[in-house]
Design brief:
112 residues; mainly alpha; two-stranded antiparallel ribbon; 4 helices
Length: 112
């Protein structure tokens, strides 16, 4: 499949999209979309922000735990562990959402 066809297949049509946020109860939120509406664009923007923040946090963690750097307090390490946990949770949700939107190889071959 060409790039545009892959994008179109990944943006909609494969069922509801897992959104990058949860309900107040912590349950997953889904959107039925063709991939081109306001909420879909908002979800794309939030996913990008989440991945960027995770990247920045990872760089901070690498610097903070590098040999020869000042040792953090237990409270600071706990804060870092919580933020890394949140970033990993976000990244896994983004990966799951995007993975659901990628067409199966068999479907891609049949459509070609």
């Amino acid at each position: 499949m060409r790039r545009r066809e892959l994008y179109d297949a990944a943006s909609g049509g494969g069922g509801p999209r897992l959104l990058p946020w949860t309900s107040p109860e912590g349950k997953p939120c889904y959107l039925s979309t063709d991939g081109r509406g306001y909420l879909s664009t908002l979800a794309d923007s939030i996913e990008t922000a989440q991945l960027s923040m995770g990247q920045e946090l990872l760089e901070y963690a690498r610097d903070a735990t590098a040999p020869g750097t000042k040792t953090l307090s237990a409270t600071e390490y706990r804060w870092l562990a919580r933020r890394l946990t949140e970033a990993l949770t976000d990244a896994l949700r983004v990966a799951e959402s995007r993975g659901h939107r990628i067409p199966d190889q068999e479907e891609a071959t049949e459509d070609a």
